[in-house]
């Protein structure tokens, strides 16, 4: 069976489709690959950034639908992602090394925690501002 499995695509239930779609496309740079539109309103979409994909669909729910959910995007250069996000006004955290990875993170409008990580040989717990690389 494992040879048939090619990809896992997170399906996020969001509180406000317009805000979430804008955050992922305009803010983070995802491209919309597929959409389901009903009565001229976006109801579902498949978004892609590099080889990573996710789906969004609006569901009514009390509270914060993203509580307790994290998505880890493994990338070649998390520091470049961090600088790109900050240049667009996205409040990504200062990168820090954890588990031999540079990690920067942020939350989307529904509270889903998004982590961008890349391998490094820099010592654990090093912050970007303390690194002389």
Walkthrough of the structure:
With 133 residues, the protein is α/β, with parallel strands linked by helices. It has one domain (8-127): Roll (2,3-Dihydroxybiphenyl 1,2-Dioxygenase, domain 1). It is built from two helices and eight strands, in the order E-H-E-E-E-E-H-E-E-E. The longest helix has 11 residues, at 17-27.
Tag the structure with descriptive keywords.
133 residues, alpha/beta, 2,3-Dihydroxybiphenyl 1,2-Dioxygenase, domain 1, four-stranded mixed β-sheet, 2 helices, 38% strand
Can you give the mean pLDDT? 90
Q: Characterize the quaternary organization of these chains.
A: single chain
Unreliable runs? none
Instruction: Assign the structural class, choosing from mainly alpha, mainly beta, alpha/beta, alpha+beta, or little secondary structure.
Output: alpha/beta
Q: Please give the CATH class.
A: Alpha Beta
Count every helix, treating DSSP H or I runs of 4 or more residues as helices. 2
Order the strands across the largest sheet as they lie in space. Answer: 1-4-3-2
**Number of separate domains:** 1
How many E strands? 8
Shape type: elongated
**Major pleated sheet:** 4 strands, mixed
Distance between the termini: 44 Å
Short description:
By secondary structure, the chain is α/β, with parallel strands linked by helices.
List the helices and strands and how they pair.
Layout: E1 11-14, H1 17-27, E2 31-38, E3 41-49, E4 52-58, E5 70-74, H2 78-87, E6 96-98, E7 101-107, E8 113-119
């Amino acid at each position: 069976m494992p040879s048939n499995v090619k990809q896992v695509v997170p399906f996020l239930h969001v509180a406000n489709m317009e805000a979430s779609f804008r955050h992922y496309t305009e803010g983070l740079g995802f491209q919309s690959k597929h959409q389901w539109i009903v009565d001229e309103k976006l109801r579902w979409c498949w978004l892609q950034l590099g080889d990573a994909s996710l789906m969004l669909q609006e569901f009514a729910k009390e509270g914060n639908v993203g509580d307790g959910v994290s998505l880890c995007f493994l990338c070649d250069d998390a520091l470049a992602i961090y600088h790109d996000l900050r240049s667009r006004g996205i409040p990504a955290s200062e990168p820090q090394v954890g588990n031999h990875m540079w990690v920067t993170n942020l939350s989307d409008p529904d509270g889903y925690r998004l982590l961008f990580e890349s391998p490094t040989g820099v010592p654990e717990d090093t912050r970007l501002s303390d690194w002389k690389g």
